Amino acid sequence: MVYVMLADGFEEIEALTVVDVLRRADIDVFTVSITDNKTVTGSHGIPVIADKLIDDADLINADMVILPGGMPGTEGLYNSSILEKAIGERVEQNKWMAAICAAPMVLGKRGYLKGHEAICFPGFEKDLHGATIKDCPVVISGKFITSKGPGTALDFALAIVSVLKNEETAQTLKVNMQAE
Question: According to a count of CB atoms within 10 Å of the terminal CB, is the N or C end of the chain lower?
Fold first, then answer.
């Protein structure tokens, strides 16, 4: 079970590309609203109906929790006390976390990326406390996957497939989606 967290102002491409690709890979993935409403509006005004509300998602025991970027969505994720607690427990238990664009700052500002390599949308590097900043589309370091931004959403999703399934499945999807 994988959860893609949605806050008002999330980056639509980053969230929905991941959901689409993971479903193509037969990975159980659900969108989760951090608000008390299943309808969450993206940063470009696209309303999305989440599969679950945060209170109904078992974030601790999920295979992965994914944080899309976008503003002010990333700030909403950072300010969610329920999500903050869940992320802390997941990191303590060495469970997968993934974040793209501005969202790696949700992990970085709390020091979770210290000693790891990471990437984020340009300008947010200062928030990745203790991380070694890389210059590539996607970085896998320990149990963290980070990615640069909307243009790297497909690479990000395929990297997630590669760790939750295997590299062969990710490569097959890449070919079938004409991403090569």
Answer: C
